[in-house]
Specification:
5-stranded mixed β-sheet; about 400 residues; about 40% helix; 16 strands; binds adenosine monophosphate; alpha+beta
């Protein structure tokens, strides 16, 4: 787990604020849910997923409850829906840390952040399109150009069940050719064998039966509706019928966004889909659901690779240098900040030279210097730090106007 220090932390916050701008503009409100849930909430995600079986940070608390740090937020949002029963469509967005006990590496951490949206209560395929389009718009807003969209449909629960039976028969017949890990997965959930990224499984996975052969008329129509909507918005996509995604609750549409610059094991920037049965399995009424989660850490790595959405240095309007003891710096910074501008200062009454060194490092637009001469004349010296302009002595009463003009 990592510490995120300035200026990276500022970039994180900007990332979330760009995301909030995009989704709030489409009517989504923020939901803030607890970091911990009853373990059972996450067990509903499915007992054949690594996220639940191997990667959960779960423990018994002092009251004897078996709880877990959240590994994702969709289950928490659905639990909140069941608990509070808001009106539908319920359109929410979220941000925050998730916890998975994975092997840490570039783009894979044990505590990582996501932003995401979920919509509960609507079956319309146009909603799937809206959800995908918002992620697409967000990537554009960050400046990312090398993101590709993979799309699939897992059909309705019955289609999926028939498909799983066919897959099971196929993989069982070829069991010996699967890697030992995939043989274990096969016993738990044959669908997840398709998720295997192990080269030794690749040939068998490639020749496996295809989900499209099992779609009901309703599932096929829903999927066509999604594709037509994406085409209407000029959002390019590739159908990948091996895209089953890690979590077991998906129905109908599933999708994933991949970054063109990242290693294939960690190139999933985000993904999501429909999970029409999840609310029910948490004790709520039958409710349609669709959403996505985008990984903040990995998306920022993709931004680094593409040279977009760069870290911005801190911008201060002024850095106050006071050689008269420090009380004037106290007054001036307070005055500048109260005027809605930004200011920092030096401390400990150090020499002019030492204070100017800190001023240079601060990234401020100008140093506001006050020494005994300035005090005597009720003035300050302003010295631009980011241009070659010379310094000038100005009346103290005009400082705020000067700084405001310098900003614009
Ligand atoms: P998931 O909830 O597994 O669909 O993940 C959604 C997104 O979260 C992924 O596409 C990644 O960008 C990100 N993500 C998932 N697991 C990790 C992790 N261990 N470290 C960093 N990012 C992650």
């Amino acid at each position: 787990m990592r510490d995120i220090l300035p200026p990276d932390s500022e970039r994180w916050r900007r990332f979330v604020s760009v995301f909030a701008g995009v989704v709030e503009g489409a009517g989504y409100g923020q939901v803030i849910s607890p970091l911990l849930e009853d373990l059972g909430v996450f067990q509903r995600i499915g007992d054949a997923t690594d996220v639940v079986t191997k990667e959960m940070y779960d423990f018994v608390d002092k009251g004897g409850r078996h709880i877990a740090l959240r590994p994702e937020l969709t289950a928490s949002v659905c639990r909140a829906f069941v608990q509070h029963r808001p009106l539908t469509p319920w359109k929410v967005w979220y941000t925050g840390s998730q916890f998975r006990y994975e092997k840490p590496q570039r783009g894979r951490f044990r505590q990582f952040d996501q932003v995401g949206i979920e919509v509960l209560g609507v079956e319309d395929p146009h909603l799937d399109v809206e959800v995908i389009a918002l992620a697409w718009e967000f990537y554009r807003a960050l400046g990312l150009g090398q993101v590709t969209l993979l799309l699939n449909s897992l059909g309705e629960p019955d289609d999926r069940a028939r498909y799983v039976t066919a897959l099971q028969a196929y993989f069982e017949a070829n069991r010996k050719e699967l890697t030992p890990e995939s043989q274990v997965t096969l016993d738990k959930n044959p669908l997840r064998v398709l998720d295997s990224k192990r080269p030794a499984d690749a040939a068998l996975v490639a020749a496996a039966p295809r989900i499209a052969e099992f779609y009901s008329a309703h599932a096929a129509a829903h999927f066509e509706g999604v594709q037509a909507g994406l085409a209407a918005l000029n959002i390019p996509f590739t159908i990948d019928d091996r895209l089953v995604r890690g979590l077991d609750y998906y129905r109908h549409t599933t999708f994933e966004f991949q970054g063109g610059t990242l290693d294939s094991a960690q190139n999933a920037l985000g993904g999501g889909g429909r999970y029409d049965g999840l609310v029910e399995s948490l004790g709520g009424p039958p409710t349609h659901g669709v959403g996505f989660a985008l990984g903040l850490d990995r998306t920022l790595l993709a931004c680094d690779d593409e040279g977009v959405f760069a870290v911005e240095p801190l911008h201060l309007d002024a850095f106050v240098v006071d050689t008269t003891g420090g009380l004037e710096a106290l007054r001036l910074t307070a005055e500048i900040r109260a005027a809605g501008l930004t200011a920092d200062r030096a401390y400990e009454n150090r020499s002019m030279k030492a204070q100017m060194k800190v001023a240079d490092r601060s990234g401020a637009a100008c140093a506001v210097i006050i020494g005994s001469n300035e005090m005597a004349e009720d003035a300050v010296t302003v010295r631009p730090l980011r241009t070659d302009e010379g310094q000038q002595l100005i009346a103290r009463s005009t400082l705020i106007d000067y700084l405001k003009k310098a900003r614009s």
